[in-house]
Amino acid sequence: MPDIDRERAWLLTVDGAPQSYVDLDEPTHLEFEYARRLAHVLDSAADDGAALSVLHLGGGALTLPRYVATTRPGSRQDVVEADLGLLDLVAEHLPLPEGSGVAVHGADAREWLGKAPTASVDVLVADVFGGSRVPAHLTSVEYAREARRVLRPGGLYAANLADGAPFAFLRSQLATFAAVFAELALIAEPPVLRGRRFGNAVLVASDGDIDTAFLARRAAADAFPARVEYGESLARFTRDARPVDDAGAVPSPVPPDGAFSIG
What we know:
Layout lengths: L1 E4 L5 E4 L2 E5 L11 H12 L8 E5 L5 H9 L4 E6 L2 H10 L8 E5 L2 H7 L5 E6 L14 H10 E13 L4 H11 L4 E6 L1 H4 L5 E8 L5 H9 L6 E4 H8 L25
Parallel strand pairs: 4-5, 4-7, 5-6, 7-8
Antiparallel strand pairs: 1-2, 2-3, 8-10, 9-10, 9-11
Helix pairs in contact: 1-2, 1-8
């Protein structure tokens, strides 16, 4: 069950695993590395301070929507979260400020995406986990096509994924999104990319240019530096992986014991 620990600076946990971290007095503080990497993608989407239209699939404690509302005033954001109990918990304990420009919807991410207007958002952030796994219906070519449809020309898709060696899931996701989008990049810590441990990786996709130099600078400056793979190096990592469709889609792998636990 979701739980908020006030003594640990508003840490939201689900079944003992950290899910979101929120500092209501400093909404630009992003505690988790994967959240910072998603924020780097958001920061690269437009000039500093420019308003964006953002769709968040997966809400958590609304950490990234708060970040965008603070760094890009006037942005329009929709958040889709299927866990209604979680939404109630967050609304009670971690309410959004008035005038945030954030609309929260209790719905399945794939169903909501299918009804979203075409070419309606600048950035689509996918951070959806059923427990500790990315649901299968958010990993297919059909899903990727819906994401592309909803994005404006040159818009950015960014997804938080998790995997470990031999990376069957992560490579299949790269192949799947390469079948739909012209450009891809992957942000992850070197120990994860080398297969030394299970961890998060942020997939970035676009029909336009991805500012990989910007992302590389930001990722390298993190407390736990990450690397940005793209082009030939990303193709080598993907190797002969094949795209997956709805019929063959599977959720991300079960993390090893303790991979994301705290305390």
